[in-house]
Amino acid sequence: MKNLDVNAFLQKVKKLEKGEKLDLSSDEDLSIGIMNLISMEEHFFFTYNKTGNEKYLDLLNEVREVRKSLLKKIIKEYEGEVWCISKHLLAASMRLMEVGTKYLTKGDKKNAADLFKKSYHLYSLFWGLNLGVVGVSDVKKNDEEKISFLTDEEKPKVKKSASIFEKLGELVKKAVDCCRE
């Protein structure tokens, strides 16, 4: 993956930090909102099928149109199936997060933690795709990859053999900070 195209990514992060291009904290909030809209679409689908009431199809369609317009605010340029891949990454991330929360409520922290990690990996892949850090064909494990643009103090604590998900997760932590004003 050519070092996660880190130089281009670093430039994007620096611009983002200066507020020059995107406000990723707002985009992160927006992505969570979009996740919830996708969930609403699913609930309207199931409710329609359980009740047969067509008003749920109308509601599903309205929510879908809102979701599409908001997704365009984050996914400005894409090729091939990146739009659909992005939508499904957000949907899968949200579902795994919800199931993890259910495990946590039952006191099963081990399974909750596993699902939360997987959810975050999918969420990180969403950002990797949409910030141009990773291409669809780049999602593979490569033990030789390094995150070389960071100083020793900045380097995330990622094992050399870390998966692409772990590396993207560390990069996203640096770039997407919902607490940054």
Description:
Helix 4 packs antiparallel against helix 5 and helix 5 crosses helix 6. The chain has one domain. The protein is built from six helices and no strands. The two termini are 32 Å apart. The chain has 181 residues and is an all-alpha fold.
Q: How would a crystallographer describe the biggest sheet?
A: none
What is the first-to-last residue Cα distance?
A: 32 Å
Shape: flat
Amount of helix: 55-70%
Tally the structural domains: 1
Q: How large, in whole angstroms, is the Cα Rg?
A: 18 Å
Helix/strand-derived class?
Answer: mainly alpha
Order of helices and strands: HHHHHH
Overall pLDDT level:
76
Give the strand content: under 5%
Count the E strands. Answer: 0
Low-confidence stretches: 139-152, 154-158, 177-181
How large is the count of helical segments?
6
Task: Sum this structure up briefly.
With 181 residues, the chain is mainly alpha-helical. Helix content is 65%, strand content 0%. The longest helix has 28 residues.
